[in-house]
Design goal:
Layout lengths: L1 E3 L1 E4 L3 H13 L5 E5 L14 E3 L8 H19 L11 E5 L5 H16 L2 E4 L23 E4 L2 H7 L9 E5 L2 E3 L2 H14 L3 E4 L2 E7 L2 E7 L4 E4 L2 E3 L5 H6 L8 E11 L11 E4 L3 E2 L4 H9 L9 E2 L3 E5 L7 E5 L5 E3 L11 H12 L14 E9 L6 E4 L5 E5 L5 H17 L18 H8 L8
The structure holds flavin-adenine dinucleotide (FAD).
Length: 455
Amino acid sequence: MDRKNVVICGAGIAGISAAYNLAVQHGLKDILLIDERPPLSLTSDKSTECYRNWWPGPGDAMVSLMNRSIDLIEDLAHTTGNEFHLNRRGYLYLTGNPEKIPSMLANAEETSRLGAGPLRIFRGDSSDSQYIPPEPHGFTGSPDGADLILDRNLLRRHYPYITEKAIAGLHIRRAGWFSAQQLGSLLLAQAKTHGVQLLEERVNGVDLEHGRVRAVHLEGGERIQTHHFVNAAGPFLSQISETLDVQLPVYCELHFKVSTADHLKIIPREAPLLIWNDAQKLPWSKEESAFLAEDQDTRWLLEEFPPGVHTRPEGLEDSPIILMLWEYHTLEVDPVLPPPLDSDYPDIALRGLATMIPELKHYFDKPPRPLMDGGYYTKTKENRPLIGPLPVEGTWVLGALSGYGLMASLAAGELLALHLLGTDHPSYAAAFELKRYQDPAYLDLLSNWEDSGQL
Ligand SMILES: Cc1cc2nc3c(=O)[nH]c(=O)nc-3n(C[C@H](O)[C@H](O)[C@H](O)COP(=O)(O)OP(=O)(O)OC[C@H]3O[C@@H](n4cnc5c(N)ncnc54)[C@H](O)[C@@H]3O)c2cc1C
């Protein structure tokens, strides 16, 4: 039987970051990363590749985890000449609803207090500071925190392609996007240079001896002896934990993404991530509305859709590609591969985006060909990850990274490594351990959890 110090199941961004942190940052030897698929090919290549440090409470755990992760991502960008194209254009949340402004302000003040950086407010009067528009490339020299823009003229000056109905925007500044495949490949390459081995195989289960892990067995019949097993199986986190007789409080949601060509150049290539934060009815013509109303299978298209449709330009200056996303149906499902796609999604996302960017209506009659994919958010109820020990000695979990696994990857892998090595943990560690669910005060908090921060 082969013997390894640590066996990690899953070579998505979570497993790769754990291997990178253990091998490169801590010099641990004999680490085996096992995946039945090519690395980064299940969920980690479906992402929108965005990041932000702006996360709700309660407490500062999510903001601290993300700040730490972004610090580490920035360090890596510095040392590699920004090989993975990290930018800092921000997220711009927009509303046309005046009733939303008080809660927008209160939430922004709260997140700022949690450590996400200063909040600057732009009211269009002489006391306003200077709004600094986003730099399209690079990640240095941009402000921290967020800008709450309540001055419509300022919004129109900088974002003339946004609907005139927009009356306020919250521009999150420690945010943007990067190439997730390049970041993941970089981490994997460095891990391999430090001795991490990658094996393409399926993990079937774990052998225990005296209540602790003894070996991992593979579909091909092989057994690998080890004292440390990390479950980083993404959407199959529960399946792997069940082989240890451990139930995890996680579930999967199916999420889609569309990329398409904006050949009319309606969305400027230097735009930030743009999010319409109001519920809306889709902009159908009178004839279309009448037609859709006739059939009970299409009538739902006339109802109100939730907030959150978003878009961003993808690729270099000369690329026409934009990404479009909108979770108008939250589908809680068992993960099935390949994920079943929703053929209505591209058209609905385009129409939803046209409420925010009216010129997109030029595509209604002749929509550009959409390229659609989808993947699973693996989540806990409160949308916080699971990072730390499992009840079986020598077993660890790194997952439930929901819709933020790329941005959280560096700090999440670091935290897993600190747990496994038994060294000092950062202040946010306890917020992500499985044993938090044994605390009655936490369960109490869970029953009144308000904002999951999910986009
Ligand atoms: C549409 C969409 C948009 C997103 N946008 C963003 C975004 O903008 N920013 C962001 O940070 N995050 C985003 N995410 C979330 C992010 O993609 C995930 O959180 C992240 O990829 C999860 O990584 P993971 O390593 O936990 O899982 P995965 O990438 O799924 O990796 C798990 C691996 O485990 C392997 N595995 C499972 N079971 C076994 C077994 N028995 N044996 C061997 N191998 C096994 C699988 O083959 C897989 O490779 C998005 C996700 C989706 C779907």
